[in-house]
Amino acid sequence: MHIEQIELLSPAGSFDCIIAAIKAGANSIYFGVEQLNMRSCSSNGFIISDIKKIKKICKENKVKAYLTLNSIIYGHDIQLLRKILDEAKKTKIDAVIAADFAVINLCKELEIPLHISTQANISNIESVRFFAQYAETIVLARELTLKQIAQISNAIIKEQITGPSGYLIKIEVFIHGSLCMAISGKCYLSLHSHQSSANRGACIQNCRRKYIVKDLATNEELKIDNEYIMSPKDLSTINILPEIINSGVSILKIEGRSKGSDYVYKTTKCYKEAIISIKENKYNRYAIRKWTKQLSTVYNRGFWNGYYLGQKLGEWTSVAGSIAEEKKILLGRGEKYYPKIKIAEFKIESGTIKKGDTIIISGKHIGFKKIKLEKLYVNGTESATANPGDKITFPLKDKIVANDKIYKIIKETHV
Question: Which helix (H) or strand (E) element contains residue 199?
Fold first, then answer.
Protein backbone atom coordinates (compact mmCIF):
# COMPACT_ATOMS: atom_id res chain seq x y z
CA MET A 1 0.00 0.00 0.00
CA HIS A 2 1.47 3.35 -1.06
CA ILE A 3 1.64 5.89 1.75
CA GLU A 4 -0.45 8.42 -0.22
CA GLN A 5 -3.32 5.94 -0.28
CA ILE A 6 -3.43 5.36 3.47
CA GLU A 7 -6.78 6.37 4.93
CA LEU A 8 -7.07 7.63 8.51
CA LEU A 9 -10.47 6.74 9.98
CA SER A 10 -11.65 8.57 13.10
CA PRO A 11 -14.51 7.91 15.54
CA ALA A 12 -17.51 10.24 15.80
CA GLY A 13 -20.09 9.87 18.57
CA SER A 14 -21.35 13.45 18.23
CA PHE A 15 -21.32 16.40 15.83
CA ASP A 16 -18.56 17.94 17.98
CA CYS A 17 -16.40 14.91 17.24
CA ILE A 18 -17.13 14.95 13.51
CA ILE A 19 -15.87 18.52 13.23
CA ALA A 20 -12.91 17.77 15.51
CA ALA A 21 -11.91 14.80 13.35
CA ILE A 22 -12.16 16.85 10.16
CA LYS A 23 -10.12 19.71 11.64
CA ALA A 24 -7.42 17.26 12.75
CA GLY A 25 -7.04 15.73 9.29
CA ALA A 26 -9.18 12.59 9.19
CA ASN A 27 -9.84 11.09 5.75
CA SER A 28 -13.03 9.45 6.99
CA ILE A 29 -15.25 9.15 10.05
CA TYR A 30 -17.50 6.38 11.37
CA PHE A 31 -20.66 6.85 13.41
CA GLY A 32 -23.58 4.85 14.80
CA VAL A 33 -27.34 5.44 14.58
CA GLU A 34 -30.12 4.57 17.01
CA GLN A 35 -29.49 1.42 19.10
CA LEU A 36 -28.06 -0.82 16.37
CA ASN A 37 -24.37 -0.22 17.01
CA MET A 38 -21.75 -1.24 19.56
CA ARG A 39 -21.63 2.18 21.25
CA SER A 40 -25.38 2.84 21.43
CA CYS A 41 -25.37 3.31 25.22
CA SER A 42 -21.97 4.95 25.71
CA SER A 43 -22.03 7.75 23.12
CA ASN A 44 -24.41 10.68 22.66
CA GLY A 45 -25.98 8.89 19.73
CA PHE A 46 -27.37 9.96 16.39
CA ILE A 47 -30.87 9.44 15.02
CA ILE A 48 -31.93 8.56 11.49
CA SER A 49 -32.53 12.18 10.48
CA ASP A 50 -28.90 12.97 11.39
CA ILE A 51 -27.55 10.74 8.60
CA LYS A 52 -28.31 13.37 5.95
CA LYS A 53 -26.67 16.13 8.03
CA ILE A 54 -23.58 14.01 8.66
CA LYS A 55 -23.18 13.13 5.00
CA LYS A 56 -23.54 16.79 4.04
CA ILE A 57 -20.83 17.89 6.48
CA CYS A 58 -18.48 15.14 5.31
CA LYS A 59 -19.08 15.77 1.62
CA GLU A 60 -18.41 19.50 2.02
CA ASN A 61 -15.08 18.64 3.67
CA LYS A 62 -14.17 15.80 1.24
CA VAL A 63 -14.27 13.23 4.04
CA LYS A 64 -15.91 9.80 3.77
CA ALA A 65 -18.74 8.85 6.14
CA TYR A 66 -19.20 5.26 7.28
CA LEU A 67 -22.34 4.15 9.12
CA THR A 68 -21.71 1.57 11.85
CA LEU A 69 -24.40 -1.11 12.26
CA ASN A 70 -22.22 -3.68 13.97
CA SER A 71 -24.44 -5.01 16.75
CA ILE A 72 -26.32 -8.31 16.81
CA ILE A 73 -29.66 -7.90 15.04
CA TYR A 74 -32.83 -9.52 16.43
CA GLY A 75 -36.09 -10.06 14.60
CA HIS A 76 -37.73 -7.00 16.15
CA ASP A 77 -34.85 -4.85 14.83
CA ILE A 78 -35.44 -5.56 11.14
CA GLN A 79 -37.98 -2.79 10.55
CA LEU A 80 -35.68 -0.18 12.11
CA LEU A 81 -32.70 -1.65 10.25
CA ARG A 82 -34.50 -1.25 6.91
CA LYS A 83 -35.35 2.39 7.73
CA ILE A 84 -31.74 3.14 8.56
CA LEU A 85 -30.41 1.44 5.45
CA ASP A 86 -33.00 3.12 3.22
CA GLU A 87 -31.78 6.49 4.52
CA ALA A 88 -28.15 5.43 4.07
CA LYS A 89 -28.91 4.49 0.46
CA LYS A 90 -30.80 7.74 -0.14
CA THR A 91 -28.04 9.94 1.28
CA LYS A 92 -25.26 7.92 -0.42
CA ILE A 93 -23.37 7.03 2.73
CA ASP A 94 -19.92 5.83 1.66
CA ALA A 95 -20.23 2.45 3.38
CA VAL A 96 -21.91 0.51 6.18
CA ILE A 97 -19.79 -1.35 8.78
CA ALA A 98 -21.45 -4.60 9.89
CA ALA A 99 -20.98 -8.20 11.02
CA ASP A 100 -24.55 -9.51 11.30
CA PHE A 101 -25.73 -11.34 8.17
CA ALA A 102 -29.05 -9.51 8.20
CA VAL A 103 -27.21 -6.23 7.62
CA ILE A 104 -24.80 -7.84 5.16
CA ASN A 105 -27.62 -9.31 3.09
CA LEU A 106 -29.69 -6.11 3.05
CA CYS A 107 -26.64 -4.06 2.02
CA LYS A 108 -26.14 -6.42 -0.89
CA GLU A 109 -29.83 -6.17 -1.79
CA LEU A 110 -29.74 -2.36 -1.67
CA GLU A 111 -26.28 -2.16 -3.30
CA ILE A 112 -24.80 -0.23 -0.38
CA PRO A 113 -20.98 -0.53 -0.07
CA LEU A 114 -20.09 -2.69 2.91
CA HIS A 115 -17.17 -3.03 5.32
CA ILE A 116 -17.05 -6.20 7.42
CA SER A 117 -16.64 -5.30 11.11
CA THR A 118 -13.95 -6.71 13.40
CA GLN A 119 -16.85 -8.42 15.23
CA ALA A 120 -16.83 -10.98 12.39
CA ASN A 121 -13.39 -12.07 13.70
CA ILE A 122 -11.80 -12.48 10.26
CA SER A 123 -8.34 -13.91 10.80
CA ASN A 124 -7.45 -15.85 7.63
CA ILE A 125 -7.54 -15.60 3.83
CA GLU A 126 -10.36 -18.16 3.47
CA SER A 127 -12.66 -15.88 5.45
CA VAL A 128 -11.55 -12.94 3.30
CA ARG A 129 -12.48 -14.90 0.15
CA PHE A 130 -15.92 -15.62 1.59
CA PHE A 131 -16.74 -12.06 2.62
CA ALA A 132 -15.32 -10.60 -0.60
CA GLN A 133 -18.60 -11.41 -2.33
CA TYR A 134 -20.27 -8.86 -0.03
CA ALA A 135 -17.69 -6.30 1.05
CA GLU A 136 -15.10 -3.85 -0.28
CA THR A 137 -13.18 -3.62 3.01
CA ILE A 138 -12.47 -6.06 5.82
CA VAL A 139 -11.65 -5.04 9.39
CA LEU A 140 -9.42 -7.84 10.62
CA ALA A 141 -9.60 -9.50 14.04
CA ARG A 142 -7.76 -7.47 16.64
CA GLU A 143 -5.67 -10.39 17.88
CA LEU A 144 -3.62 -10.83 14.70
CA THR A 145 0.11 -10.15 14.47
CA LEU A 146 1.63 -7.94 11.77
CA LYS A 147 3.09 -11.07 10.18
CA GLN A 148 -0.39 -12.61 9.89
CA ILE A 149 -1.82 -9.34 8.53
CA ALA A 150 0.95 -9.15 5.92
CA GLN A 151 0.25 -12.73 4.82
CA ILE A 152 -3.43 -11.87 4.28
CA SER A 153 -2.60 -8.61 2.48
CA ASN A 154 -0.10 -10.34 0.18
CA ALA A 155 -2.55 -13.14 -0.61
CA ILE A 156 -5.21 -10.61 -1.63
CA ILE A 157 -2.80 -9.11 -4.17
CA LYS A 158 -1.42 -12.45 -5.35
CA GLU A 159 -4.85 -14.01 -5.83
CA GLN A 160 -6.46 -10.73 -6.98
CA ILE A 161 -9.33 -11.03 -4.51
CA THR A 162 -11.83 -8.30 -5.31
CA GLY A 163 -15.02 -6.97 -3.76
CA PRO A 164 -18.36 -6.33 -5.52
CA SER A 165 -16.94 -3.17 -7.15
CA GLY A 166 -14.19 -5.13 -8.87
CA TYR A 167 -11.42 -3.44 -6.87
CA LEU A 168 -9.01 -5.34 -4.62
CA ILE A 169 -10.25 -5.93 -1.08
CA LYS A 170 -8.93 -3.33 1.37
CA ILE A 171 -7.69 -4.27 4.82
CA GLU A 172 -8.51 -2.11 7.84
CA VAL A 173 -6.94 -2.38 11.31
CA PHE A 174 -7.23 -0.56 14.62
CA ILE A 175 -4.25 1.60 15.58
CA HIS A 176 -5.40 3.27 18.81
CA GLY A 177 -7.97 3.08 21.59
CA SER A 178 -9.69 0.79 24.05
CA LEU A 179 -9.25 -2.97 23.89
CA CYS A 180 -11.70 -5.59 25.15
CA MET A 181 -10.56 -8.71 27.00
CA ALA A 182 -12.76 -10.81 24.66
CA ILE A 183 -11.88 -12.01 21.17
CA SER A 184 -12.57 -9.10 18.79
CA GLY A 185 -14.82 -7.54 21.41
CA LYS A 186 -17.43 -10.32 21.46
CA CYS A 187 -17.92 -10.37 25.23
CA TYR A 188 -20.77 -11.91 27.23
CA LEU A 189 -19.74 -10.87 30.76
CA SER A 190 -22.07 -7.85 30.93
CA LEU A 191 -24.97 -9.90 29.56
CA HIS A 192 -24.30 -12.76 31.98
CA SER A 193 -24.11 -10.55 35.07
CA HIS A 194 -26.61 -7.78 34.29
CA GLN A 195 -28.64 -8.81 31.23
CA SER A 196 -26.99 -5.91 29.40
CA SER A 197 -25.37 -7.15 26.20
CA ALA A 198 -22.07 -5.73 25.00
CA ASN A 199 -22.94 -7.14 21.59
CA ARG A 200 -25.96 -4.83 21.55
CA GLY A 201 -23.99 -1.75 22.51
CA ALA A 202 -24.98 -1.94 26.20
CA CYS A 203 -21.77 -3.08 27.91
CA ILE A 204 -21.62 -1.92 31.55
CA GLN A 205 -17.83 -2.52 31.55
CA ASN A 206 -17.75 -4.65 34.68
CA CYS A 207 -14.45 -6.03 33.35
CA ARG A 208 -12.90 -2.65 34.30
CA ARG A 209 -13.45 -3.24 38.03
CA LYS A 210 -11.21 -4.75 40.71
CA TYR A 211 -11.61 -8.47 41.37
CA ILE A 212 -10.45 -10.90 44.04
CA VAL A 213 -9.46 -14.44 43.04
CA LYS A 214 -10.56 -16.94 45.72
CA ASP A 215 -10.26 -20.70 46.08
CA LEU A 216 -13.83 -21.71 47.00
CA ALA A 217 -12.69 -25.04 48.44
CA THR A 218 -10.39 -23.46 51.02
CA ASN A 219 -11.77 -19.91 51.00
CA GLU A 220 -8.18 -18.75 50.45
CA GLU A 221 -7.57 -15.60 48.44
CA LEU A 222 -4.92 -15.99 45.75
CA LYS A 223 -2.27 -13.30 45.63
CA ILE A 224 -2.13 -11.53 42.27
CA ASP A 225 -0.03 -8.60 41.09
CA ASN A 226 -2.96 -6.59 39.79
CA GLU A 227 -6.59 -6.62 40.85
CA TYR A 228 -7.75 -5.32 37.45
CA ILE A 229 -7.35 -8.78 35.95
CA MET A 230 -9.77 -8.26 33.04
CA SER A 231 -9.08 -4.64 32.06
CA PRO A 232 -6.54 -4.26 29.24
CA LYS A 233 -4.48 -1.15 28.68
CA ASP A 234 -5.34 0.85 25.58
CA LEU A 235 -3.84 0.16 22.18
CA SER A 236 -1.28 2.68 20.90
CA THR A 237 0.78 2.07 17.77
CA ILE A 238 2.31 5.50 17.18
CA ASN A 239 5.73 3.90 17.77
CA ILE A 240 5.23 1.05 15.27
CA LEU A 241 3.18 2.83 12.62
CA PRO A 242 5.62 2.23 9.72
CA GLU A 243 5.52 -1.52 10.41
CA ILE A 244 1.71 -1.46 10.39
CA ILE A 245 1.60 0.43 7.09
CA ASN A 246 4.19 -1.95 5.60
CA SER A 247 1.96 -4.91 6.45
CA GLY A 248 -0.22 -3.90 3.50
CA VAL A 249 -3.21 -2.33 5.24
CA SER A 250 -5.23 0.45 3.61
CA ILE A 251 -7.23 1.97 6.47
CA LEU A 252 -5.96 2.93 9.93
CA LYS A 253 -8.79 3.11 12.45
CA ILE A 254 -8.93 4.94 15.77
CA GLU A 255 -11.33 3.54 18.39
CA GLY A 256 -13.39 5.92 20.51
CA ARG A 257 -16.97 6.78 19.52
CA SER A 258 -17.80 7.22 23.21
CA LYS A 259 -14.94 9.68 23.76
CA GLY A 260 -15.04 13.48 23.66
CA SER A 261 -13.93 15.89 20.95
CA ASP A 262 -10.60 16.48 22.73
CA TYR A 263 -9.74 12.78 22.41
CA VAL A 264 -10.85 12.64 18.77
CA TYR A 265 -8.93 15.77 17.82
CA LYS A 266 -5.72 14.86 19.65
CA THR A 267 -5.52 11.22 18.50
CA THR A 268 -6.42 12.08 14.90
CA LYS A 269 -3.90 14.94 14.78
CA CYS A 270 -1.07 12.83 16.21
CA TYR A 271 -1.59 9.93 13.83
CA LYS A 272 -2.09 12.26 10.86
CA GLU A 273 1.22 13.95 11.65
CA ALA A 274 2.88 10.53 11.99
CA ILE A 275 1.57 9.38 8.60
CA ILE A 276 2.85 12.59 6.97
CA SER A 277 6.22 12.25 8.71
CA ILE A 278 6.60 8.69 7.39
CA LYS A 279 5.80 9.96 3.90
CA GLU A 280 8.38 12.75 4.23
CA ASN A 281 11.00 10.51 5.87
CA LYS A 282 10.88 12.57 9.08
CA TYR A 283 9.55 9.87 11.40
CA ASN A 284 11.97 9.54 14.35
CA ARG A 285 12.15 8.78 18.07
CA TYR A 286 11.89 12.45 19.02
CA ALA A 287 8.62 12.83 17.13
CA ILE A 288 7.33 9.57 18.62
CA ARG A 289 8.10 10.89 22.10
CA LYS A 290 6.21 14.11 21.36
CA TRP A 291 3.14 12.27 20.00
CA THR A 292 3.11 9.80 22.90
CA LYS A 293 3.18 12.72 25.35
CA GLN A 294 0.25 14.37 23.55
CA LEU A 295 -1.75 11.13 23.43
CA SER A 296 -1.23 10.69 27.17
CA THR A 297 -3.09 13.96 27.86
CA VAL A 298 -6.44 12.57 26.70
CA TYR A 299 -8.45 9.57 27.89
CA ASN A 300 -6.33 6.43 28.21
CA ARG A 301 -5.77 3.47 30.53
CA GLY A 302 -2.08 3.24 29.76
CA PHE A 303 -0.65 2.07 26.44
CA TRP A 304 0.70 -1.07 24.81
CA ASN A 305 1.15 -2.28 21.22
CA GLY A 306 -1.53 -4.95 21.39
CA TYR A 307 -0.76 -8.26 19.71
CA TYR A 308 0.84 -6.81 16.57
CA LEU A 309 4.42 -7.68 17.52
CA GLY A 310 3.55 -11.23 18.61
CA GLN A 311 2.90 -10.65 22.30
CA LYS A 312 0.97 -13.63 23.66
CA LEU A 313 -0.60 -12.13 26.77
CA GLY A 314 -2.32 -8.80 27.27
CA GLU A 315 -1.14 -5.93 29.45
CA TRP A 316 -3.55 -4.83 32.17
CA THR A 317 -4.35 -1.45 33.63
CA SER A 318 -3.58 -0.90 37.30
CA VAL A 319 -6.19 1.77 38.09
CA ALA A 320 -9.87 2.41 37.49
CA GLY A 321 -10.68 4.72 34.59
CA SER A 322 -8.39 7.04 32.71
CA ILE A 323 -4.82 7.98 33.60
CA ALA A 324 -4.79 10.97 31.25
CA GLU A 325 -2.32 13.65 32.28
CA GLU A 326 -4.94 16.33 31.75
CA LYS A 327 -8.47 16.55 33.13
CA LYS A 328 -11.24 18.75 31.75
CA ILE A 329 -13.75 20.37 34.10
CA LEU A 330 -17.03 21.67 32.68
CA LEU A 331 -17.47 25.34 33.53
CA GLY A 332 -20.40 26.56 31.47
CA ARG A 333 -22.00 27.08 28.07
CA GLY A 334 -21.84 29.49 25.19
CA GLU A 335 -24.29 32.41 24.95
CA LYS A 336 -23.27 34.68 22.05
CA TYR A 337 -20.60 35.38 19.46
CA TYR A 338 -19.75 38.85 18.18
CA PRO A 339 -18.35 38.24 14.66
CA LYS A 340 -17.22 41.80 13.88
CA ILE A 341 -14.91 41.97 16.89
CA LYS A 342 -14.44 38.17 17.19
CA ILE A 343 -15.46 37.91 20.83
CA ALA A 344 -17.05 34.87 22.46
CA GLU A 345 -19.42 35.05 25.43
CA PHE A 346 -20.01 32.23 27.91
CA LYS A 347 -21.93 31.91 31.15
CA ILE A 348 -20.10 30.21 34.02
CA GLU A 349 -22.34 27.62 35.68
CA SER A 350 -19.88 25.93 38.05
CA GLY A 351 -16.29 26.21 39.13
CA THR A 352 -13.98 29.18 38.66
CA ILE A 353 -11.88 30.39 35.78
CA LYS A 354 -9.03 32.85 35.75
CA LYS A 355 -6.78 34.65 33.31
CA GLY A 356 -4.00 32.34 32.15
CA ASP A 357 -6.09 29.14 32.40
CA THR A 358 -6.06 26.69 29.51
CA ILE A 359 -9.57 26.03 28.23
CA ILE A 360 -11.31 23.76 25.76
CA ILE A 361 -14.39 24.75 23.78
CA SER A 362 -16.47 21.96 22.26
CA GLY A 363 -19.53 22.25 20.04
CA LYS A 364 -21.19 20.93 16.90
CA HIS A 365 -19.87 23.79 14.76
CA ILE A 366 -16.54 24.60 16.36
CA GLY A 367 -15.71 20.94 17.02
CA PHE A 368 -12.71 21.32 19.31
CA LYS A 369 -10.68 24.37 20.27
CA LYS A 370 -7.98 24.58 22.94
CA ILE A 371 -6.56 27.97 23.95
CA LYS A 372 -4.88 29.80 26.80
CA LEU A 373 -6.91 32.71 28.18
CA GLU A 374 -4.66 35.70 27.63
CA LYS A 375 -7.50 38.18 28.20
CA LEU A 376 -10.60 37.74 30.34
CA TYR A 377 -13.57 40.07 30.77
CA VAL A 378 -16.13 39.34 33.49
CA ASN A 379 -19.58 40.97 33.21
CA GLY A 380 -18.09 43.52 30.83
CA THR A 381 -15.02 44.45 32.88
CA GLU A 382 -11.47 43.12 32.50
CA SER A 383 -10.85 40.82 35.44
CA ALA A 384 -8.57 38.07 36.71
CA THR A 385 -11.25 35.61 37.91
CA ALA A 386 -14.82 34.56 37.12
CA ASN A 387 -17.24 32.60 39.32
CA PRO A 388 -20.60 30.80 38.86
CA GLY A 389 -23.25 33.16 37.52
CA ASP A 390 -20.72 35.43 35.78
CA LYS A 391 -20.74 36.09 32.06
CA ILE A 392 -17.27 36.04 30.56
CA THR A 393 -16.01 37.29 27.19
CA PHE A 394 -12.66 36.82 25.50
CA PRO A 395 -11.15 37.04 21.99
CA LEU A 396 -11.76 33.96 19.81
CA LYS A 397 -11.28 33.66 16.07
CA ASP A 398 -13.63 30.67 15.77
CA LYS A 399 -17.39 31.24 15.93
CA ILE A 400 -19.28 29.68 18.83
CA VAL A 401 -23.03 29.12 19.17
CA ALA A 402 -25.39 28.87 22.13
CA ASN A 403 -24.80 25.82 24.33
CA ASP A 404 -21.23 25.18 23.17
CA LYS A 405 -19.40 23.85 26.22
CA ILE A 406 -16.40 25.43 27.89
CA TYR A 407 -13.99 23.38 30.01
CA LYS A 408 -10.99 24.22 32.16
CA ILE A 409 -7.95 21.99 31.83
CA ILE A 410 -6.03 20.95 34.92
CA LYS A 411 -2.96 18.74 35.21
CA GLU A 412 -3.40 15.29 36.71
CA THR A 413 -0.85 13.06 38.42
CA HIS A 414 -1.31 9.32 38.85
CA VAL A 415 0.70 7.18 41.21
Answer: none
